[in-house]
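Write out this protein's structure.
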Amino acid sequence: MSQLAFTAFSLNGVDAQKFLQGQVTIHVERLSENESRYTAICDLKGRIHFGLWIKKLNPESFELVTVQDQAEEFSKHIKKFGAFSKMKLDEIGSVYPTVVGIQTEFSSTETDIHIWQVQAIQSGQAWITHTTEHLFQPQELRLHQRDGVHFDKGCYLGQEIVARLWFKAKPKHWLHLIQAKDVAPAPATQLNKDVEVVNSIAFEDGYLALVIAKPAALEQLSVAVLDLPEVLNGDVARPS
């Protein structure tokens, strides 16, 4: 398994905000400046293709961070879809994460990635890598509960399916935090047919993991289901 690392990009230009508004699940125009938020670019089936942290410096200047193993593919995606937009994507280089509350902030100061992974998993900060792209829907990862999806914004890639799931359906599986005594399973591993690993890390004498699961399916496994931060502990479905 390759070492987890992160790549930052700058996106600058008069069309930057408008372009991102048509790409990501978050309402870019309403983003507070200088706060990092984890959001997604979906495929046409409403599943997450790229996970990215977005920070608005101003409406014409954004900092975007992806995991390193998605960086090249992400860059090609932005340049392909943004070919006719007045903006420029530049790679800044490696950045390092720190958990702040339930969010992640990045800087050029080196941090311990293992510590970040433990804290991110404990705070319900799932992250997508090349291994897990096209597997999960934003609602399943509780992105809406961490201000990474807005259901009242205009069109973006996969928006019809993401909105339909919110307004007309209820997810069968969603994000849970588990702890177990075993070797940490790789991302995308199925622990049974209704439990799939998103992220995992060795912890104490076992592992911690964020999984997408049916709650009843977790009862069939020898794992402890831990509480997520309060804002992420509720029902993922739309209040009726």
